[in-house]
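pinging the channel bc i need a second pair of eyes. not urgent but kinda urgent?? the chain im working w is below, pasted from the shared doc
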Amino acid sequence: MRALRTLLIIAVVLGGLFTAADRLAVGFAESEAADRIRASRQLASTPEVSIHGFPFLTQLAGGELHEVEVSMAGITATADGRQVDVTEVRAKLRGVRIGSGFSSAVAGSAEGSARISYEDLSEAAPEGAVVGYAGAERAAKGQVELRGRLVEVLEGAGVPVPGAVEALLGDREVSTYSTVTLVEGSTVRLRAEDLPELPVPGLGERLRKVVDYDLEIGGLPTGIELDTVRAGEDGLSFSGRGTDVTLTG
């Protein structure tokens, strides 16, 4: 009886030591993976990495992790040279095959998401224009509102507005609803629904070229393609998925 009790105590102690070692190892691996991702993707800040599943050491020995979650800040989007921040990019990866020292990490499958606030979306819009929430009915159609003073929007995009034309336009505003779509997995496309008729021939076409623009999201894990966009009260939310997704390259 005493021998059995001793064996149980030893088993508990060894189990505790193994668990402690396992948790130390996973913490080190998460930190190492975060540093690798930051360096390979040239991020401004270190991402948060969470490795799930227990025990970790057996996963590591097998060269494949069951599930890894990554949250990245410092991702940017670009429209005609104007660069804005993507509020946050998240990825949930499954079946992650890892190389020695986390030199590589490729997931069999992954789900990703990103979010851009209206404030940041306005930074990418033509100068003088503001992008905002279009209301529940319009948002359900994937639309946002774009508005601004006509003269400022045109001049901000480099379209000259002679004094006589400016006098005709006065303080007139452009106010339109733009439909948001996703193209090729990482390009956000905004296209205005209706634009006002302008009193100067050809000016309407030039205005459309200004307010219709594409926003390219960079820094997503390679292999994830965004396929869904939702307009909410606080901005645009995107989601997508992919296979053979690369984290560190």
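so The first strand starts at residue 48 and ends at 52. and Residues 151 and 166 are 7 Å apart (CA to CA). — does that match what u expected or am i reading it wrong
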